[in-house]
Amino acid sequence: MTQFQPTAQHPRGNPLEVLMIFLKLGLTSFGGPIAHLGYFHKELVTRRRWVSDSQFSQLLTICQFLPGPASSQLGFALGLMRAGWLGALAAFVAFTLPSALILTGFAAFLPYLPLSTGTAVIHGLKLVAVVVVTDAVLTMLKNLCPDASRKSIAIFSACLLLLTSAVWVQWLVLIIGALAGVNFCRGTTTLADNTIAVGYGKQTGFLLFSAFLILLIGLPMITSHHSGLLTIINLFYQAGALVFGGGHVVLPLLQDSIVSGGWMSNETFLAGYGAAQAVPGPMFAFSAYLGAFMPTSYHSTVIAGVALLAIFLPGLLLVAAALPTWQLFSRNALAASAIAGINAAVVGLLGAALYDPVFISSVTSAQDFAICIIAFGLLRIWRVSPLVAIGWCVLASLLPTAL
């Protein structure tokens, strides 16, 4: 069994440290899954050096290939590498719980705000996401694409992704990136910096994957004979296990299952849907809102917790199962070249996502662009806390409504 070996660059942490940092991220990471990647990179790679850019990119690649919420899976994996299983649990709980707790309260409180004020606050938070993702893309471009070959892979990857919206193209881009890396990036990587090390081996990974399959196949068989709580668990587990593309994809899927299934009205669903677009943290936390409104004999908080755990569980089982196998793969010299190409493709993927959906859904005027430029200067030039940039974007967006 290969154990995680701390280094001077990436020392071993503790679960409390992971809990506190991911709690901060869970409270401030606005903008949806792509923006979360920018926040993670800024806090955990650039600022704290928990992992290298290459390791971060590899973890992101794994999560992109698997069904489930990619940003939450990435956070879980980062916590696992930093502080073992307790670190992984701390990362998941701290990043997810804030949005799960405030989602219904936010949905209830927002109607009492003046419409212009609530809209301006949400708009300001979306502008923050533009700045954070831009900063992450530029940092990763510098560190992961230092030569013409890898810059070229990043550029062609971004162009291909911008020309189509199909989810499967993301996988194609990563595969092409790996093949290009094998051909054009040989001898350009440092194997030690590539390693994804976790404190368990392939046998544990196989057991975790087996648990995923048993639940995926077994729950529908059980619920065909029994209803109630198991039916709810199965509904959310299947949604988390079979959806690719993250929160924006799972929400319409849940709407079809829950509204058409008669669990709640479309109006109630859409009220929570709107709030889910505005709160920090993972969009899969919307499941807690849905669970709280589902009519059962159990207390609403119990069902909210059950729904939350059921939708996240399959994705977390899969990423934990995949890490030991990837660890062995990444140590091969030829694989290191493929990883270099994948890293460059990931930069292109994030670059494309920076434009669509992050930029085009947030920057709608010259004033918005000016706000973003100043916020970018706060982060990149004056090196202030991201909280200062958040405050600036929100206040600048609120100013026209106050005049």
Walk me through the structure.
The protein is mostly helical. Helices cover 76% and strands 0% of the residues. The protein has 17 helices and no strands. The protein has helices at 15-28, 33-47, 53-65, 70-109, 115-144, 148-162, 168-184, 191-194, 202-223, 229-242, 247-260, 266-276, 286-293, 300-330, 333-359, 366-380, 386-402. α7 (168-184) crosses α15 (333-359) and α12 (266-276) packs antiparallel against α13 (286-293). It is globular.
Percent of residues in helices comes to over 70%
Enumerate how many helices there are, as a single number. 17
Distance between the termini: 64 Å
E-strand count: 0
Poorly predicted parts: 1-9
In N-to-C order, the SSE pattern is HHHHHHHHHHHHHHHHH
Rg (C-alpha, Å): 21 Å
Strand content: under 5%
List the SSEs and their pairings.
Layout: H1 15-28, H2 33-47, H3 53-65, H4 70-109, H5 115-144, H6 148-162, H7 168-184, H8 191-194, H9 202-223, H10 229-242, H11 247-260, H12 266-276, H13 286-293, H14 300-330, H15 333-359, H16 366-380, H17 386-402
